[in-house]
Write a structure and sequence with these properties.
319 residues; mainly alpha; 12 helices
């Protein structure tokens, strides 16, 4: 059930926008971290996007939308840290060595960890399709990264970060849904999380020495364009489009982004950046996406025998 109606043409235009925008952000991250330190890049991106989104929502709803109180700010900072430092910060760091397509596939497993954590922490039963999807997803991960991790290649640390990233995103999503007191409306919560999480990312960049060693003169024009794209299109356009869609379209249709975006990222990485698409990568991608399809499809269908695991939250860089 949706709160209002929209023409099917507009709905599909919005969904296609999500596919392209959130699928292309992994490519933009790879370009941006070519000459901007990853945590600094992510911090700048989310502070700018969060400031703009929060200010716009407050100004648009002036008189009806209030700024976050102390509890809401604290919980937003906690959620922002889990989503943006543990989630997108690690993705950005990993993409300094790992191809953008592989990063998108591994980060796209967030729905799998959402179901696993809901089961472990809250005792929720997983639908049979979600269990099958989890097994298939793990098999895809083994196919994609197993050989590299086994040999300890140069990409191994980045791959480990990409395995941890969707776990942090899933944990943050569950905390946001079950425990946190967040600002309203949803776009104010998103903007506050981006702003506070971005400030924490800048603190990480300072502690790790990224700020002290940063030279704006060394940043390439392509990297600046990548950062601008991530801030404006990836964050602002993506989140506003998503927020509009969940009010006018069936959630089952909107959440197809969860398994379409990784494939968009793989294709763009191969075409634009020339990232390798060998047989193992293609097979791993197919298996991972199949697992995500099973999981997302299962979590959309309520069962009399269980509580449904919450629908996956959007990924801000790709979200």
């Amino acid at each position: 059930m949706t709160s209002r109606s929209a023409s099917p043409l507009l709905v599909w235009a919005g969904i296609l926008t999500l596919y392209v925008v959130w699928g292309s952000t992994y490519l933009a991250i790879r370009v941006a971290v070519g000459s901007i330190p990853p945590f600094l890049m992510a911090g700048i991106r989310f502070v700018a996007a969060g400031t703009l989104l929060t200010a716009a929502v407050w100004a648009w709803g002036r008189g009806t939308v209030r700024l976050p109180n102390r509890r809401e700010a604290i919980d937003s900072a906690v959620v922002g840290a889990m989503l943006l430092i543990g989630g997108m910060g690690m993705v950005s760091w990993a993409e300094t060595t790992v191809p953008s397509g592989i990063a998108a596939l591994l980060a796209g497993l967030m729905p799998m960890w959402l179901g696993v954590f809901a089961r472990v922490v809250f005792g929720e039963r997983m639908a049979r399709g979600a269990v099958a999807g989890t097994i298939v997803g793990l098999a895809g991960v083994a196919l994609l990264v197993g050989p590299t991790l086994a040999t300890g290649g140069a990409e191994a640390p980045g791959l480990i970060a990409l395995l941890l990233s969707p776990m942090s995103w899933a944990a943050g999503s569950l905390y946001a849904a079950r425990r946190a007191v967040l600002p309203k409306p949803a776009l104010m919560a998103s903007g506050t999380e981006m702003l506070l999480g971005g400030l924490l990312l800048l603190a990480v960049a300072a502690v790790t020495g990224e700020v002290g060693g940063f030279s704006p003169a060394a940043v390439t024009p392509d990297a600046w364009l990548g950062l601008l794209y991530l801030t404006t299109v990836g964050s602002l356009v993506g989140f506003v489009t998503f927020a509009w869609l969940v009010g006018v379209a069936p959630l089952a249709r909107v959440t197809t982004y969860a398994y379409v975006n990784p494939m968009v990222a793989v294709i763009l990485g191969a075409i634009i950046l020339g990232e390798a698409l060998d047989l193992r990568t293609i097979a791993g991608a197919v298996v991972v996406v199949a697992g995500v399809v099973l999981i997302v499809s299962a979590t959309r269908q309520p069962s009399r025998e269980r509580e449904s695991v919450p629908a996956p939250e959007p990924v801000p860089s790709a979200g």
